[in-house]
Amino acid sequence: MNEPRPITEVAVGVLVKPDGQFLLTSRPEGKVYAGYWEFPGGKVEPGESVEQALARELREEIGIQIGAAHPWQTLVMDYPHARVRLNFCKVFDWTGEFQMLEGQQMAWAALPVHVKPVLPGTIPVLQWFATERGHAGPTHLD
Ligand SMILES: Nc1nc2c([nH]c(=O)n2[C@H]2C[C@H](O)[C@@H](COP(=O)(O)OP(=O)(O)OP(=O)(O)O)O2)c(=O)[nH]1
């Protein structure tokens, strides 16, 4: 049997506003899946917890300071370029102005999501939201 591919831990932030809208950002030029929409986050560095990595990534990428990160769901994705474990955390509190420090775009979204394309690893999150919110019908546009 083949050895499983090594897994890269990724911390992902699901920022939710009081009205239920959630933040999506586009992947910057130069990264794999450039232009695809996702929840902001990035790889956990050695010695960091998921919560620490999330706070760092959101500070570096979108310029905000987050309050508590609430672990929500995890998902392993096997991409051609990597095998990743996405650690999705909900975040309800943050301070600072949003700044797209890597030239991304941002969008506050609701179901169904209108920005496209969305990253494959983002689609299950939209389905979790749909279940949580009793949303029927498509979660995003193809
Ligand atoms: N941030 C984020 N990454 C996701 C999501 N869904 C998903 O499959 N991924 C994948 C894409 C990448 O393979 C990996 C995240 O790595 P990344 O390239 O964004 O991480 P990073 O900011 O640390 O990048 P770098 O230092 O390697 O440039 O997780 C998502 O919703 N958000």
For the structure shown, list the relevant keywords.
globular; alpha+beta; binds 8-OXO-2'-deoxyguanosine-5'-triphosphate; 142 residues
SSE order, as H and E?
EEEEHEEEEEH
Global Rg: 15 Å
> How many separate helices?
2
Shape verdict? globular
Overall pLDDT: 96
Ions and ligands? 8-OXO-2'-deoxyguanosine-5'-triphosphate
Largest sheet: 4 strands, mixed
Q: Low-confidence spans: pLDDT under 50, at least 5 residues?
A: none
What structural class should be given to the helix and strand makeup?
alpha+beta
The termini sit apart by: 36 Å
For the largest sheet, list the strands in their spatial order: 4-1-7-6
Percent of sequence in beta strands:
25-35%
The helix fraction, in percent, is: 10-25%
Beta strand count = 9
Report on this structure.
By secondary structure, the chain is α+β, with helices and mostly antiparallel strands. It has two helices and nine strands, in the order ββββαβββββα. It has helices spanning 50-62, 123-133, and strands at 7-15, 22-26, 37-38, 41-43, 65-66, 69-78, 83-91, 94-95, 106-109. Strands 4-1-7-6 form a four-stranded mixed beta sheet, with helices on one face. A hairpin with a 4-residue loop joins strand 6 (69-78) and strand 7 (83-91). The longest helix has 13 residues, at 50-62. It is globular. The structure holds 8-OXO-2'-deoxyguanosine-5'-triphosphate (8DG). 8-OXO-2'-deoxyguanosine-5'-triphosphate is lined by residues 10, 12, 31, 38-43, 77, 79, 82, 84, 86, 119, 121-122.
